[in-house]
Amino acid sequence: MSHDIMRGGVWAFRLSAVGAGLVATAAGLAVSGKAISVLVGWAFAIAASSFCPLLVLGIWWARLTWIGALTGLIPGGGASSAAVLASLLGVGPSGWWAVLLGVPAIWTVPLAFATMVGVSLATPRAVPADVLHKLLALHLPERVRQQTAPGL
Question: Can you tell me the mean pLDDT for 41-68?
Answer without folding.
Answer: 93
